[in-house]
Amino acid sequence: MYAYGLLPFIVSTSAVAREIVFPPIAAIQASGQVPLGKDDRVDIVTGSQFSGLTTFAHLPYVNCLVDDQAQFTPYDIAILGAPFDTGVTARPGARYGPGGIRLGARRLQGWSIYTGVNVFKSWATIVDCGDAPLTWLDNTVISSRPTNTTGLGRTPRILTLGGDHTTTLSALRSTYDKWGPVSVIHFDSHLDTWDPEVLGGGISHYAGVNHGTFLHIAHEEGLIRNTSLHVGIRAPTVRRKGDIRNDIRCGFEIIKARDLDRVGINGIVEQIKSRVGDSKVYISVDIDVLDPAYAPATGTAEPGGFTTRELLSILDALHGLPVVGADVVEVAPIYDTAAETTTLAAARWLIRCYISWWKRRSMITSV
Ligand SMILES: [Mn+2]
Predict the structure, then answer these.
(1) What positions does the entry give for Mn(2+) binding (predicted)?
(2) Which of 10, 51, 161, 254 would bridge 81 by S-S if both were Cys, CB 3.0 to 4.6 A apart?
(3) Which residues of 3-34 are buried (b: 16+ CB within 10 A; e: fewer)?
(4) Distance of CA 86 from the midpoint of ligand 1 (Å)
């Protein structure tokens, strides 16, 4: 009875239904995939954020660590992962940082609404070199392994994806080999100039090489200038006065997190620029410079930090500095939110670095 009663309705529906006409698949041709239209349209086929292997911002992959494969592929800027986290003093997990940051970089394309620059269409050839072959079992091995590539006749800039902050020591050794001592602009909630005798306990050389002592070691090795500075400091010191005295001795000035409330973005930028002067610069961003609300996925989170917008505004304003190397470190994706809060922020910061270099093409190509 029920089926019989429904039948007239089905019949009458069929009678008025229209055929759905699907458009031809315009973007696919026999010769391969091509953009949908002119350059000003979005390429939703080959430009998909989901296709291909996950390199940083879909940059081409070059195995920079094998001369045979790298020598015919010149590049200006290289992304290099440093999957290492045995130098941490709290939560581990930054060895997964490079992969996490690459996932956070899937949608990095286009022109900046603030600067008008599209770094992927600027002068620089940018590639992703994958991750460095590091051991995760010995802190002293990473610190003796150079991360730069030098066999191509010019010196590419390296953007390192950490890894814990110990990895910056090897990067500073590498930049020193090419450019001598650099000023370090160190965005962090912690000083990281702790004496290995204090943070490491003097137990062994191995214990003294960690993510809180690498800037002390860099100073002792003469890798950095005494025109360096920290930005965003707020973590407590271990010693009442000794840590600050040692920090000054290592060549650093301190901009505390709450200084932003007092002097604003412009005030901080002026202080940074006046401190480093004309010297060559290495920018190191420990993602814990951000407040844990904006970057929870890190090893030693400290409340009371910058917002993502504040950090990006400062970095944008640093364009024009002669940056010779940079990194973003201490990203431990396992602690991130499901919304990838931290890895998105880490990926954005790297774009800011490109802009700095883009403004200094003449300086870069002359060395
Ligand atoms: Mn740090």
Answers:
(1) 165, 188, 190, 192, 286, 288
(2) 161
(3) eeeeeeeeeeeeeeeeeeeeeeeeeeeeeeee
(4) 14
Q: Is 165 annotated as a binding residue?
A: yes
Ligand 1 mean position to 125 CA, how many Å? 29
Q: For residue 118, what are the domain limits?
A: 56-353
Tell whether 308 is covered by a domain: yes
Domain count, the chain: 1
Q: The domain that contains 244 carries what CATH number?
A: 3.40.800.10
Per-residue pLDDT at 331 exceeds 80? yes
CB 249 within 8 A of CB 216: no
Kindly give the distance from the C-alpha atom of residue 332 to the centroid of ligand 1, in angstroms, as a whole number. Answer: 13
In a domain, 29, yes or no: no
The predicted pLDDT at position 195 comes to 92
Which residue bears the tokens 């994706």? 333
Does 311 score more than 70 pLDDT? Answer: yes
Region 108-137 average pLDDT: 83
Do the annotations mark residue 286 as ligand-binding?
yes
219 a known binding residue?
no
Distant-in-sequence, close-in-space partners of 82: CB < 8 Å, separation ≥ 6: 98, 131, 132, 134, 142, 147, 160, 161, 162, 163, 167, 170, 327, 329
Reported as a pLDDT band with limits 50, 70 and 90, residue 85 is very high
Q: Is 230 assigned to a binding site?
A: no
- Which residue did the predictor score with more confidence, 224 or 18? 224
Alpha helices by DSSP H, listed for 209-257, are 214-220, 242-249
Q: Is 20 part of a structural domain of the chain?
A: no
Structure tokens, 193: 């100039």
Contact yes or no for 160/168 (Cβ under 8 A): yes
5 CA distance to ligand 1 centroid (A)? 74
Per residue in 104-113, pLDDT (tens digit) is 999 888 888 8
Within a domain: 9:
no
